[in-house]
Design brief:
- Its cofactor is Fe(2+).
- This is Cupin domain-containing protein.
- Keywords: Iron, Metal-binding.
- InterPro entries: JmjC_dom, NO66-like.
- The structure is a single chain.
- This protein is of the alpha+beta class.
- The protein folds into 2 domains: 229 residues, Jelly Rolls (Sandwich), CATH 2.60.120; 83 residues, Malonyl-Coenzyme A Acyl Carrier Protein, domain 2 (3-Layer(aba) Sandwich), CATH 3.40.366.
- It is 24% helix and 21% strand.
- The chain is built from 10 helices and 19 strands.
- It has an 8-stranded antiparallel β-sheet, with helices on one face. The protein has a 3-stranded antiparallel β-sheet with strand order 10-9-12, with no helix packed on it.
- Strand 15 and strand 16 form a beta hairpin.
- The longest helix is centred in the middle third of the chain and has 15 residues.
- The radius of gyration is 26 Å and the shape is globular.
- The protein starts with 7 loop residues before the first strand and ends in a 5-residue tail after the last strand.
- Bound molecules: succinic acid and cobalt (II) ion (CO).
- Cobalt (II) ion (CO) binds next to loops.
């Protein structure tokens, strides 16, 4: 087994800005992102040896690479409140939710436990770099990067997930067994969702640098073959149609607040005497139909801003601390000229055409043209360099987002 303390950690590179979508990628086992999406995504599993070639190359030259995040750092992160952590112990199954103190976590030499840390891209630049490799898939679908660290034999039991996941082996070995079985019934009275009858169909031992892609509902069971085994899962999300529609409609309903003429009251001077007083009046139906058409409430384009805003909401645990010393608008404008503006690691940005949503809010409507342009660059590249925004006032959304800690101004580095 590799030693944690003697080998040097692997530093994942940041993905290039323009991903070559039709060239073969080692990460995808020598196929292109286009081919991957067509053949495997959301359809069938794919096991990739040497998805991160650095581990294999190190082995060939008799050196070993370790995970960029050592176990001690992971244990410390487990005690932090702004991230979701879980400890799962097997034999018998036990489940505890974080934050977890060091003394709550079994020693690395002890068997049969797994510590899961969600949203690690916000905690470590290496996790953020790994996530950047997967931007050939829309940001709206991306959930987060989860790191698991386990004692020998540790695992979360045979189960299935409702989401697509890339399981990247980063330290030690893990044996993955998978099954496309139809029977997904769960064992009753357990604190975890564990399949009652798991029948492995394929089994692989993953070494550092190997990766397993699983679409939703493929049953899987991963058992750590080495103590300190680390698996990094790039997880996706897909909300139910109910959630997408409800969240979009709520926001659409709220947006009606901004239309003052809707405060005018319903008027029916044309109402005639009626024999069916219990019926909703035709006059009211006709007028409401007219309003729906006038306000385009019957069109998808009116509904999508609410959905995009919703999908750009940060994780509920996210905490944004503003800068210690806030720059004035003039200082901020000057610093944009020479500094880099980056996203707080918990910030989510999504675009709908030319409109950009940051952490649930439309940040482009009503802003100046250079500000809008800056947000579009931030949404696509995740950073902004040497930006000429012109005069910045207190209402400028770049400035308010910087004040709120959503954006971070820092000295320019070499290009990412
Ligand atoms: C793990 O990393 O230990 C579990 C990940 C999973 O099965 O989804
Ligand atoms: Co799983």
């Amino acid at each position: 087994m590799t030693s944690f303390y003697l080998s040097k950690p692997y530093e994942p590179p940041q993905a290039p800005q323009n991903l070559p979508l039709d060239l073969p990628w080692a990460l995808l086992g020598g196929i292109s992102p286009n081919q991957f999406m067509k053949t495997y995504w959301h359809k069938k599993p794919l096991m990739i040896r040497g998805a991160i070639p650095a581990f294999h190359l190190a082995k060939q030259s008799n050196t070993s690479l370790e995970s960029p995040i050592p176990p001690e750092a992971l244990f410390k992160i487990a005690s932090e409140a702004d991230l979701e952590s879980r400890l799962i112990e097997a034999k018998p199954w036990r489940f505890s939710e974080g934050p977890l103190k060091k003394k709550d976590i079994p020693q690395i030499t002890k068997p049969d436990w797994t510590l899961l840390l969600q949203g690690m891209e916000a905690k470590h630049p290496a996790a953020a770099a790994v996530l950047s490799w997967f931007r050939f898939i829309p940001d709206a679908r991306l959930d987060d990067l989860m790191v698991s660290i386990a004692g020998l034999g540790g695992g979360v039991g045979p189960h299935f997930d409702s989401y697509d996941v890339f399981l990247i082996q980063m330290s030690g070995r893990r044996r993955w067994a998978i099954s496309q079985q139809k029977d997904l019934s769960l064992t009753p009275s357990l604190p975890l969702k564990i399949l009652q009858r798991f029948k492995a169909e394929q089994v692989w031992e993953l070494e550092p640098g190997d990766m397993l892609y699983l679409p939703p509902h493929v049953a899987h069971d991963g058992i750590a073959l080495d103590s300190g085994c680390q698996t990094w899962s790039v997880g996706f999300r897909s909300q139910s149609y109910k959630e997408l529609l409800q969240e979009g409609l709520w926001r659409l309903a709220e947006s009606l607040e901004e239309i003052p003429d809707l405060n005018a009251r319903f008027a029916d001077p044309k109402q005639t005497a009626t024999h069916s007083a219990e019926q909703l009046p035709q006059e009211m139906i006709a007028q409401l139909a007219k309003q729906l058409t006038r306000l385009k409430l019957d069109q998808i384009s009116t509904f999508l801003p609410g959905v995009t805003a919703y999908l750009s909401e940060p994780k509920s645990q996210a905490i944004f601390d503003g800068p210690e010393k806030i720059q004035t608008t003039e200082e901020f404008g000057r610093s944009l000229l020479k500094n880099q503006l980056t996203l707080h690691p918990q910030t989510r940005l999504l675009a709908l055409g030319k409109t950009v949503y940051c952490n649930g809010e439309d940040v482009t409507t009503g802003q100046t043209i250079p500000t809008k342009r800056a947000w579009r660059t931030l949404a696509s590249k995740k950073y902004l360099k040497n930006a000429k925004i012109g005069k910045i006032d207190e209402q400028n959304s770049l400035y308010t987002s910087y004040q709120g800690g959503w954006l971070i101004s820092k000295p320019s580095q070499r290009s990412l």
